[in-house]
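Course assignment 3, question 2. Fill in each field.
Student: A.L.
Task: Predict the tertiary structure for the chain below.
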Amino acid sequence: MGTFGRTLMLVALVAIATSPALAQATTGQLTGRVLDEDGKGLPGVTIVPTSETLQGERGAISDKEGRFNFPILPTGSYTVTAELAGYQKLELEQVQVKLGTIVPVEITMRKGAVVETVVVTADYPL
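Answer field:
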């Protein structure tokens, strides 16, 4: 195969790989930050999104700045749970993950007994 043939094949492969049909999003993204009562990033928090649309369980641990990310979640309504020893468990209900969007979530944890749970129900603007 000559140079022209290879170039033509390369162009065809690039065109197929970047076609709109293959690039369509089928999921959304949930990203956020966990803060303490002073507004500082809180590391080590276990974050778990749950939904009827999610197969299996996913979880993440907030990093040293309190950040977490779920880059590929099926669309739907989620309850996001945040837990860390020495802080009240927090549940955010009705967090809407929509097709091809990034949903930002900010969680503020309060010190307290581990058995306490704070439930927040709200819609998050996109």
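Instructor remarks: Residues 47 and 82 are 5 Å apart (CA to CA). Strands lie at 27-35, 46-50, 60-61, 67-74, 76-83, 89-97, 102-108, 117-121.
Grade: pending
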